[in-house]
Write a structure and sequence with these properties.
Length: 332
């Protein structure tokens, strides 16, 4: 039996999470879910957005499955997602980007992986008002964080039999910060002579992604670039409803979709649960339940291949629960 922390999140989070839990349980894997709240829901109930009970649960179980959590824009509490990654030092963000059968998209053959550093750079949100009308935002890049994320990327390449890791940066302009990130990448790459290591400046990399994305295998980026480029990559294969993610560190791992709480469609039961489901499949592999992961993945792929039951975002009319039922039906 695997004890796993479940954070349903808000917006479309609870709708997709409950259906993903149903699908995972139908695979026969023995999981005991510990449900916890975060963000605005937790603030209302416990007076804090990231309750200690939740952190303790993840530290104890070492694994969590998480729905999206809304972050107020420009004011209000700081991001719970960033807080979780920082507090648990989940330094590596892994986002496999793969097209699925029968999903309308620009690159049906695409299969690449984005590895994003998760703890520093401008995304850490270290900003302050210098004088009224002038704001300073700090971009911190360290040798330690850059080296460990580069090592993570090459180790992942080795594990997944990938051939190339491309570091993406702006070291021509940010010579010190991105320069350090790139230096660390090059140093680590020397330990992996069997894997091709190259690099691209981020503006060019974005254009190449739109024109010839198949040239990339694993992309390695610092935090802010990784955030933006991984959404771009999701768009190449059909959108945010599909792409999974994992935040991994020494103290635990939190599996979550790339998308947010989608307030525009929340509460309607029409969200696509595939992104969180694919995160769940990554999670099953991470905890050693490879057979269960394969069962869920094969059932999901079979439903996509038939193309009859699809949610609205990928050209169908099915509700979240109907799509989940179709996958469960394939496993019985
Ligand atoms: P979003 O990802 O929530 O939505 C962008 C667009 O994609 C919307 O049109 C939405 O309907 C669609 N979409 C997203 N997921 C979908 C799904 N599963 N099925 C069908 N359509 C889907 O991005 P947005 O609107 O920028 O952010 C909303 C909130 O979510 C913000 O408060 C943001 O901070 C938060 N957020 C949380 C994340 C997390 O918890 N890891 C990640 C990204 C954003």
């Amino acid at each position: 039996m695997h004890p796993i922390t479940l954070i349903p999140g808000d917006g479309i989070g609870p709708e997709v999470a409950s259906n993903v839990v149903r699908i995972i349980e139908a695979s026969g894997v023995d999981i005991q879910w510990e449900t916890h709240y975060a963000g605005a829901q937790a603030l209302e109930k416990f007076g804090e957005t990231l309750p200690q009970e939740l952190l303790d649960s993840i530290l104890r179980n070492k694994v969590a499955l998480k729905g999206p959590i809304t972050t107020p824009i420009g004011k209000g509490f700081t991001s719970v997602n960033v807080g979780l990654r920082k507090t648990l030092d989940l330094y590596a963000n892994l986002r496999p980007v793969r097209a699925l059968p029968n999903v309308p998209c620009r690159y049906p053959e695409l299969d690449l992986i984005v590895v994003r550093e998760n703890t520093e750079s401008l995304y850490a949100g270290l900003e302050h008002i210098v004088v009224p009308g002038v704001v300073e935002s700090l971009k911190i890049i360290t040798e330690k964080a850059s080296t460990r994320i580069a090592r993570f990327a090459f180790e992942h390449a080795k594990r997944e039999s990938r051939k190339k890791v491309t570091a993406v940066h702006k070291a021509n302009i940010m010579k010190l910060s991105d320069g350090l990130f790139l230096d660390c990448f090059r140093k680590v790459s020397e330990d992996y002579p069997e894997i091709i290591a190259d690099d691209k400046i981020i503006d060019n990399a974005c254009m190449q992604l739109v024109m010839r994305p198949e040239q990339f295998d694993i992309m390695l980026l610092e935090n802010l670039y990784g955030d933006i480029v991984s959404d771009l990559c999701a768009g190449l294969v059909g959108g945010l409803g599909l792409v999974p993610g994992a935040n991994i560190g020494e103290r635990g791992a939190v599996f979550e979709a790339v998308h947010g709480s989608a307030p525009d469609i929340a509460g309607q039961g029409i969200a696509n649960p595939t992104a969180l489901l694919q995160s769940g499949i990554l999670m099953l592999r991470y905890i050693g339940e490879r057979e269960a992961a394969d069962r869920v993945e094969n059932a999901m792929l079979a439903v996509f291949a038939e193309g009859k039951v699809r949610t609205r975002d990928v050209g169908g009319t099915a509700k979240t629960a109907e799509f989940a039922d179709a996958i469960i039906h394939k496993m019985i």
